[in-house]
Design a protein that fits this description.
The protein has about 350 residues and is mainly beta. The chain is about 10% helix and about 40% strand. It has three domains: about 35 residues, no CATH class; about 130 residues, TonB-dependent receptor, plug domain (Ferric Hydroxamate Uptake Protein, Chain A, domain 1, Beta Complex), CATH 2.170.130; about 180 residues, no CATH class. The strands form six sheets. Strands 10-11-12-17-18-22 form a six-stranded antiparallel beta sheet, with no helix packed on it. Strands 3-8-9-6-7 form a five-stranded mixed beta sheet. Strands 13, 15, 16 and 19 form a four-stranded antiparallel beta sheet that branches. Strand 20 and strand 21 form a beta hairpin.
Length: about 350
């Protein structure tokens, strides 16, 4: 939250100063505006200027997210020095590998409106369950914070703060990118009166993903004769595995597709100007799967093969089946309630 010293405030101060001193002066039309330091709450659990807190805190605002056109929370976090995101597959990647200064994700406390997002068993976070357009700002505290937040905050704290439904607004958006990647949604908020306000949001993210795996078999699996009754093909690509073993690449299991639908509902009641109660509900339905496998093996007529035996240059054979070309297929459903 950047506080701007308004022109009116500066003008009033200058006028009062001249009145008390008994001076008269002509003032220019343009008065300089000053941007004060960002206010953060994560380091001390009270609002303080970022420059005064006893720890390093980086802030990502909703404006930063809009300018960078990011799709996910982890995309936004990549801009912070010392933070590493291992989700190379983007939003279709289910890997959990956020790190802060070498500390793994299960050693970093992730909060969403004050509620921990870390799984109680593994300590990992389902990053897809947060609609990026619902984020007001993200505060990232780097360094140990266990004295304030408990044992989970060994490496740091990521505090995601959602938007408040305190004013009337409508935001409809749609973004398109490579690999048939979509982000689209709507956010609505309505201030009913001085006491009550409501908010609703829906966000859909989906992508065809990209080919990120190889189907291979080690050369040591080769046989002198093919499987009984199998069709013989050619086209295996010789290569060497990172472990030093000789292998043959047969194809790819397909792109890493994913589809994510997130719903948000908020209702807020103001007791006074400084006291309020907010109920938030989030429902997220996420599925990820591989599609359109590719085979490098073809029969004598040039037709692609997904099962049979492939003839190697040394006269030996490698057997393969359709199951070699299949990959993951998973679902995640989350319902989260928070009363603040």
């Amino acid at each position: 939250m950047k506080k701007l010293a308004s022109k009116g405030l500066l003008m009033s101060a200058l006028i009062c100063g001249n009145v008390f001193l008994g001076n008269t002066a002509a003032f220019a039309e343009d008065v300089q505006e000053y941007a004060l330091d960002e206010m953060v709450v994560t380091a001390t659990r009270t609002a303080q200027e970022n420059i005064k807190v006893p720890a390093q805190v980086n802030v990502i605002t909703a404006e930063d997210i809009k300018k960078r056109n990011v799709l996910t929370i982890t995309d936004a976090l990549k801009s912070i020095p010392g933070l590493y995101d291992g989700r190379a597959g983007g939003m279709s990647d289910v890997a959990n590998s956020i790190q802060i200064r070498g500390f793994a994700e299960d050693e970093i406390l992730v909060l969403y409106d004050g509620m921990p997002l870390n799984d109680g068993y593994s300590g990992k976070v389902n990053w897809s369950a947060i609609a990026i357009d619902d984020v007001a700002k993200i505060e990232v505290l780097q360094g140990a914070a266990s004295s304030l937040y408990g044992g989970r905050a060994v490496g740091g704290v990521i505090n995601i703060i959602s938007k408040n439904p305190d004013k009337d607004s409508v935001h409809v958006y749609a973004n398109y990118g490579s690999d048939s990647t979509w982000k689209r949604g709507i956010n609505l908020s309505k201030k009913l009166n001085d006491k009550w306000s409501l908010g609703f949001g829906y966000e859909n993210k989906e992508t065809d993903g990209h080919y990120k795996k190889l189907i291979y078999k080690y050369k040591t699996k080769a046989k002198n004769t093919p499987a009984s009754g199998s069709v013989i093909g050619t086209g295996a690509v010789a290569d060497k595995h990172s472990n030093g073993k000789d292998m043959y690449i047969l194809g790819q299991p397909g792109g890493g597709r994913s589809e994510d639908n997130t719903y948000n509902f908020k209702i807020k009641y103001n007791f006074t100007d400084k006291q309020s109660m907010t109920y938030r509900y989030t429902h997220d339905k996420y599925k990820y799967f591989a599609t359109d496998p590719v085979t490098f093996i073809h029969d004598a007529d040039g037709k692609p093969m997904f099962s049979g035996s492939v003839l190697l240059p040394d006269g030996k054979y490698l057997d393969f089946t359709e199951s070699d070309f299949t990959d993951y297929d998973g679902r995640r459903n989350i319902d989260r309630h928070a009363l603040q």
